[in-house]
C-alpha cells in the first residue's frame, strides 16, 4: 500500500486483530479504543416545554456531552428527539438532573463499549482485507478503501477511473471514482458523496456497495447498463478522510474534520455547515469538492449525499421554509425512491424538504449544490432510527445497502427521462 503515501497507523492495524483475538479467546483483556467507552450510555429525550428545553441546554453546556441527534444543540426545541452520548463520569450528574427537572428519557444504549465491540460481525473476520475477495459487508479503514479504489481501476479500466481532486487538511489525497463507459459524447453525471461526517460509517459502506453493484450488474441488468452508458457517476467514498481515519484510530464518535481552529481552541469543523459563497475560511475538503462541482456544473444533474441516522430522504431547501422551483419533479423522484426502498425490506423513510422534515439549517452541501445549478439535490439519512445509531452492526450493511441501491437507481433513471 505504499502508493498511498501515508504509513498505515498501528492503531488502525491493531483494531481488527484486537476484535479477532477478543472473539476467539474471549479473553476480555483486549478492547478497541482502549476501552474508553466502558460504562458510557446513549439516552433519548424529547423536551416537552420551553422550560425543559432551557433546562436541558443548560446542563448540556455545563457537561459538554456528545450530541448524536440533532446535529447541534441549537436545533433542540420543544418536541425535538434528542439523543445524547453520556460519558460514564457524567452519567450520574446528568441523569439525576433530568430526573429532578422531570425530563423523561429512555436509555438507547446501556453500555457503549459493548455496542462498539458488537458493531463488527464475527463471522466475517476472514477476508476483511483481501482485495480479490473484498468484503462489502464489513466496515473498512481509509487505507483499505483507498487500495480498493486503486484495485477497481486496475482491474476494470474501461469502466472505472480514479483521480484526486485535492488534499485534506492533514494532507491526504481526496480520491474520486468515476464510473461509466467512456464516451466522447456529452454525458450527464451524478455526484455521490459519503462520509462528510466521520462517525457515520454506513455512508462509506454504501458508496462501496454502489460501485460494486454497478460493476457487477452492468452486463446483466439493462437499467444499470443504461445508467453507465448514458451517465458518469462521480463517487467520493470518504469525503472527510481525516475525520474518518481519526474515527478508526482514536474516537469512534468523531464527526468533524481535523483542522485546527485557533479562534476557538478546538479541532475540526462540521463539513456540512461550511458551504458558503466566500471561501476564505473554508475547509480544504469542502473547497475541493465545491471547485470540482463548479467545474462540472453543466454535466452534473444530481447531487446525492449520504449520512446517518434517521431514515429520511431530504431535498432543498434546508436553510429556509420555501418551495424550490422544480418541486414537482424533485418530489415525485423522492416519493418513488422511498417507495422503491421500502419494497426491499419494508423500511420506511420520511421524505420532503429538509427545512420541514428535519429542521432549518444553513451552509450544507445539498442547498449549495442546488443553488449552484444542480437540479436534483438530495441528502439521505440512512438506517436506523436510534437503536444502534452510528453503530449500525455490520450484519445490517447488506439490507441497508440493498434497499438504498433501489432508491438511488430510481432517482438516476428519473434523470434520464424528461420530468413530466
Ligand atoms: Zn451526517
Helices and strands, with pairings:
Layout: H1 10-25, E1 41-45, H2 50-63, E2 66-69, E3 82-86, H3 88-100, E4 105-109, H4 112-118, H5 142-155, E5 160-167, E6 173-179, E7 188-194, H6 202-217, H7 222-230, E8 231-236, H8 241-249, E9 260-261, E10 266-267, H9 284-295, E11 300-308, E12 312-315, H10 327-345, E13 350-353, H11 354-357, H12 365-371, E14 376-382, H13 397-416
Parallel strand pairs: 7-8, 7-11, 11-14, 12-13
Antiparallel strand pairs: 1-3, 1-4, 2-3, 5-6, 6-8, 9-10, 12-14
This protein binds zinc ion.
In short:
The chain has 13 helices and 14 strands.
Question: What this model shows, in words?
Answer:
- Residues 138-415 form the Peptidase M14 domain.
- The chain is built from 13 helices and 14 strands.
- The strands form 3 sheets. Strands 5-6-8-7-11-14-12-13 form an 8-stranded mixed sheet, with helices on both faces. Strands 2-3-1-4 form a 4-stranded antiparallel sheet.
- 38% of the residues lie in helices and 18% in strands.
- The chain has 420 residues and is of the alpha/beta class.
- The protein has helices spanning 10-25, 50-63, 88-100, 112-118, 142-155, 202-217, 222-230, 241-249, 284-295, 327-345, 354-357, 365-371, 397-416; strands at 41-45, 66-69, 82-86, 105-109, 160-167, 173-179, 188-194, 231-236, 260-261, 266-267, 300-308, 312-315, 350-353, 376-382.
- Residues 196-197, 200, 307 line the site of zinc ion.
In N-to-C order, the SSE pattern is HEHEEHEHHEEEHHEHEEHEEHEHHEH
Give the strand tally: 14
Largest sheet: 8 strands, mixed
Total helix count?
13
Low-confidence stretches: 1-9, 24-28
- Cα-atom radius of gyration: 21 Å
Give a list of the ligands.
zinc ion
GO molecular function: carboxypeptidase activity
Family: Belongs to the peptidase M14 family.
Organism: Mesocricetus auratus
Domain Peptidase M14: 138-415
